[in-house]
Amino acid sequence: xxxxxxxxxxxxxxxxxxxVAHILASEDLELQAAVCGPDxxxxxxxxxxxxxxxxxGLAVGPLEPGCFGEAExxxxxxxxxxxxxxxxxxxxAALVSGTxxxxxxxxxxxxxxxxxxxxxxxxxxxxxxxxxxxxxxxxAAALPEADVEIVESHHRGKxxxxxxxxxxxxxxAAAxxxxxxxxxxxxxxxxxxxxxxLGEIGIHxxxxxxxxxxxxxxxxxxxxxxxxxxxxxxxxxxALGALRAARWARGKDPASYxxxxxxxxx
Length: 266
Ligand SMILES: NC(=O)c1ccc[n+]([C@@H]2O[C@H](COP(=O)([O-])OP(=O)(O)OC[C@H]3O[C@@H](n4cnc5c(N)ncnc54)[C@H](OP(=O)(O)O)[C@@H]3O)[C@@H](O)[C@H]2O)c1
What we know:
Elements: E1 4-9, H1 14-24, E2 29-36, H2 47-50, E3 60-62, E4 73-76, H3 80-86, E5 94-97, H4 104-111, E6 119-121, H5 127-142, E7 147-154, H6 164-176, H7 181-184, E8 185-187, E9 201-207, E10 214-220, E11 225-231, H8 236-249, E12 256-257, H9 259-263
Helix pairs in contact: 1-8, 5-6
Residues 10-16, 36-37, 40, 42, 63, 77-79, 81-82, 98-101, 122-125, 160, 238 line the site of NADP nicotinamide-adenine-dinucleotide phosphate (NAP).
């Protein structure tokens, strides 16, 4: 089989560089394009050198029409504005997208690409988090009276808070109880209130140092607490998950997919 051709949007970023490194190390994958912002300090640098894996012969280019070349799949770890600006340039390429912090309206614009090609969107491409989402839903449903509190930690450079993963975990717990997250979410509790409402889901964000990404979900009742969690020890977990999704998306029908589909979870 011919190598799968991939373009990376956000190729100069923390996650994008790990995606580039793994593509260049994989015989079944071919790096077709590496894309960053028009004002990037790394513009036109060699994508492999930037990723720390040596000369690749492919320079990082700006986001502009035609920037993704003939790539079959575009992998995106960038910014909401960059992802939205990239949509018209995707043509028929599949999209594997991990950028977080999009509004519901912006998510709908991204999802519209699924009319033309497969779209795999995930707030967290780590397979461990995909399994955690399942576990949290099961625990929240089995313990309907218990208090759910979610605490996430990330590095000081992360722009959106709470994390997309924390929101996905909260949504999974709410949905498992037949709740709408908007009606039960309590973000970063402060001040004097009337105490904790039954069914409330607390969500709290810590920003510190170089934390790659940690999520802890407490499900607390009278006399005991269940604690479920996930620790990303390196960004390779996101890069490898996104590449697994890219390989899986090849030949799939145009539609919106999640990492559950990629992992074959029921
Ligand atoms: N789904 C997941 O598994 C997962 C995991 C980790 C992070 N994330 C999310 O992925 C995103 C990226 O995270 P990160 O830590 O890699 O961020 P980062 O290091 O800040 O990288 C952002 C990338 O976006 C590029 N960019 C910025 N403006 C652009 C523009 N106008 N056009 C094109 N590219 C542009 C940057 O390029 P230049 O600045 O060089 O132009 C850089 O390559 C965030 O939303 C983060 O929350 C998702």
